[in-house]
Design a protein that fits this description.
Blueprint: E1 9-13, H1 18-29, E2 33-38, H2 41-55, E3 59-63, H3 69-78, E4 84-88, H4 102-130, E5 133-138, H5 151-171, E6 176-183, H6 189-202, H7 206-215, H8 225-235, E7 247-250
Parallel strand pairs: 1-2, 1-4, 2-3, 4-5, 5-6, 6-7
Helix pairs in contact: 1-2, 1-8, 4-5
Length: 259
């Protein structure tokens, strides 16, 4: 399928690894001019080179932290008029909510709620003026199936999803869509860090937990980052202008509900 987005400009946060990188690579393969943003220059430079080589695409990078004003400004200096914005930030580590401090909560909210909302604030009006925009927030299935040990992520990501629900109904008439992707367990570094954070509380080995989590859904496997990347590219496509304000699960059918 021709997605109709060749030549568009995309800014992808968390684009050096995992699901963010997969989104960037699929967009680049569709002819989008991609700028990836993250905090570590070495991984960014390597990812930009590798994605460019794999796709023949125009891939640049910028060192930028979505949680800070300076980081968001740096990202927009590198990609001033994105047609596509992918907000993606690591989740907070698992833990016991009794031990979380206000500083822990503020850090989670900055990464998973305030940072993405501010990026939307700074880009959505330009998209409206140009009559094309695709904003995709990579959140988590935890906004529909919350896990107690992921309370920081449950709360912060749900705040972002709640905000988007109102704004998306105002932008879609201008061909600007805002949607949330809700991944389940994927074979990424973030998943490995999540499991490492559970070792002490469960008493199980990394291998045990890794295997259990990967086989506990109906698909009996981990998701592959490229599967989410392909979904992201379609949601950003010209054909997806009627899909807006949605929370789209990609979790191997793990969510148990009908609706």
């Amino acid at each position: 399928m021709e997605l109709g987005i060749a030549g568009r400009h995309a800014l992808v946060f968390g684009g050096s690894k995992g699901m963010g990188r997969a989104c960037a690579q699929q967009l680049a393969a569709e002819g989008v001019k991609v700028c990836i943003a993250a905090r570590t220059e070495s991984t960014l430079a390597a990812a930009a080179t590798e994605i460019g080589a794999a796709t023949g695409g125009d891939v640049r990078y910028v060192v930028a932290d979505i949680t800070t004003d300076a980081g968001r400004a740096a990202a927009l200096a590198a990609c001033p008029t994105p047609d596509i914005l992918v907000n993606n930030a690591d989740g907070a580590p698992p833990g016991d909510f009794r031990q979380w401090t206000p500083a822990d909560w503020h850090a989670a909210i900055d990464a998973m709620m305030i940072g993405p909302i501010d990026m939307i604030r700074q880009t959505v009006d330009g998209m409206i003026e140009r009559r094309f925009g695709r904003i995709v927030n990579i959140v988590s299935r935890s906004v529909k199936t919350p896990q107690l040990e992921l309370g920081l992520s449950n709360g912060a990501r749900s705040g972002l999803v709640g905000f988007v629900a109102g704004l998306a109904r105002q932008t879609v008439r201008h061909n600007v869509t805002i949607n949330n992707l809700l991944p389940g367990v994927f074979a990424t570094d973030a998943q490995r860090h999540h499991i490492e954070g559970m070792l002490e509380s469960t008493g199980k080995s990394f291998e045990q937990l890794w295997n259990e989590r990967g086989t506990s859904n109906p698909a009996a496997r981990y998701g592959r980052p490229e599967e989410l990347g392909a979904l992201c590219a379609f949601i950003c496509s010209g054909q997806a202008g009627y899909i807006c304000g949605q929370n789209i699960l990609i979790d191997g059918a793990a969510y148990p509900g009908t609706f």
